[in-house]
Amino acid sequence: MADAPATRRALLAAPMLLAAPALAQGAFPDRPIRLFIPWPPGASADVFLRAIADAAGRRLGQPVVPENRPGASGTLGAAALKDARPDGYTLAQLFGGVHRFVLANERASFNSLTDFTWIVQLSGSVHGIVVNADSPWRTLDDVLAAARAAPGRLTYGTLGPTSVQHMAMLDIMQRAGVELTHVPYRGGGELTTALLSKQVDVVADASGWAPLVADGRFRLLVVWGATRMPRFPDVPTLREAGIDLVVDSPYGIGGPRGMDPAVVRRLHDAFRDALEEDAVRAVMERFNLPRLYLDTAAFEAAQPASYEFERAGLRRAGLLPAGR
């Protein structure tokens, strides 16, 4: 006669074995995968993520379908992962801003350190400060001098409170001892329109402005990376302009927590290899996006330090709630 405890254990285990046949049988993916892009269409990150989603989809044998969810400083994609099934069919762009959002919002709907699977880091954003081509300001020093002469009168646009652009501008203003008035927008397209129509004096954003700088409609005053942009070699970095600050804003692809390691590996490999496609490289060159690849283990391991970096930035800016 069979041992009764052993029989009970076998019966309890049976439903667990039946619960994930697709993963166990290696069928992933057998249908399209959604990729949430937390920016409006046309932003540099949007263009890059669409290109790499297309390339990764060809490697996976199923389309990776982009879905824009702009707003909340680029964190609505992360929010969509919180309650998604961890089956690999729901992905989103993840970046340091999700930590900043959680730290600055006591009622955030997710925990950025525990609620996600950080699959692969891919690139980062090259940020800079631009003005209209007919602006009287030709350098960052010109803008800072104008701001000192009329505190609060000059306006600058970013992607919203606690966005990386806003945080960097606060840091620049503190270091330079000046005050400009912040005007938030939902995306790069709105920022471009606002500057062209002179609703704001200055825009701080990722490199979506690059084509307009190349066309002579915007003037690029300074870039925030560690080195100058090859496309605009005459434009100084913040450090060269006297502000000891580097902003590269690395980002990648993530999913809900609890994903099957085999599925994570499949997705990681597809997106990593897609970085080498000519179409993806062309987009990266167009927007001067760096290759900042990290594998799954390294991407995950980088997050606690990223979380503390964002906490320190919010504290310096006086935006960290009490108790955080």
From TrEMBL:
Organism superkingdom: Bacteria
UniProt xrefs under InterPro entries: BUG, Bug_dom1
Keywords, sorted A to Z: Signal
CDD domains assigned to the protein according to its UniProt record, in alphabetical order: PBP2_Bug_TTT (cd07012)
Range of residues in the leader sequence: 1-24
Similarity annotation: Belongs to the UPF0065 (bug) family.
Name by which UniProt lists this protein: Tripartite tricarboxylate transporter substrate binding protein
Native species: Roseomonas fluvialis
